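SAMPLE LOG
Freezer: B-3
Tube label: C17
Construct: single chain, 386 aa
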Amino acid sequence: MDTNTFPDHAANAVLELYDSLGKKGKPHGKEWVVVSGIVLKTQHVDDYDLEVLSLGTGNKCMSSTKLSGLGDVIHDSHAEVISKRAFRLFLYQEIHGLYTNGSSMIFDLKENLDIALKPNISFHMYVSHAPCGDASIFPEGLFEGTPGGSKPVEGVVDQLYSDQYGLLRRKPGRGVPCLSMSCTDKICRWQILGLQGNILSNIIPPIFLSSIIIGDYFYAESAYLGLKNSISLIQNTADFQSPNLHIFSTQYVFSRGKLHMTDTHNTNTLPSSSNSINWYFNSEVEVTSILGGKKMGTTKKNFDSPKQRSRLCKLEILNKFKDLYYILPDHMQSIFSPINNTWNYKSIKDNNELYINRLNQFLTCQRFQNWGISTIDGSNIEVALN
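STRUCTURE (predicted):
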């Protein structure tokens, strides 16, 4: 008899997929890494099916001095962010299949050619390590060698690190600060705006997580206050609905996670991997260098080559949108207006009034009102119509 729970089944599905992906880009020696995956659950009368839709690894991000305004590098390579961006490519794949051959795992086509989510499906995120930020605040001594929290946003509190809940935090960085918000904060944002992001919200309904399943370093109080409570602060005041996020732990341990590697090697000063893996359903694995934000093997000589760009970077996702545009029905094509035969990343996003309204309500919530506005706004990211 199977005594595992749904969270265990979902976690195991992601970990089994990770094990099946080969050695390229994975940690070696004493290195550790975080893995995250988004899982589709299809509910039947007495049972359910699970399918992993995307997977990402990583636990580092680029310093503010290395950011690119051209949309050609990956700035944030934490596993949750990588799996979400890979999931977005899965969505492009699904929309393309729906409009070209009527085939999709998650979408149905309405009579008016709009898109709806299939019934009886839900989406769940597994992450092998508690998300950085408020969800990683631990009582002193609970997890040996692991500091709680992460760096609060400048101007909120004076301390670099704090065990106070409800603070907007940036990801920790070495030396020069990182400008990326913590994964706890980003997951809260996704749960209000949807995993699909701004551009695709013109084409498909918002897609939300039904649960997050946390592996190592799970501390229930932090997970609930950092995620569930923070999301409810917006839900209580917004004029739109978003689903509640259920939070689970799992008995499964990731063999390359920090906790397992620390126990195995009896030290808490192990190095983390500098590579990031991304994968989505029916795709090949792509490996990027976290510190450079481009494909593994990129050098100074070929750094600017289009071939070295990750498929997850904003510029390549905009290229995906361009390919999709030509098969969209007329009433959807009319939403997007190229300027001088060019699509501009920022202009497309600024034109989405419904999404912008949700975003503004998110940003006016006291918990998130100091969210950093990036100086890299996408105004220099564009692709030609033809």
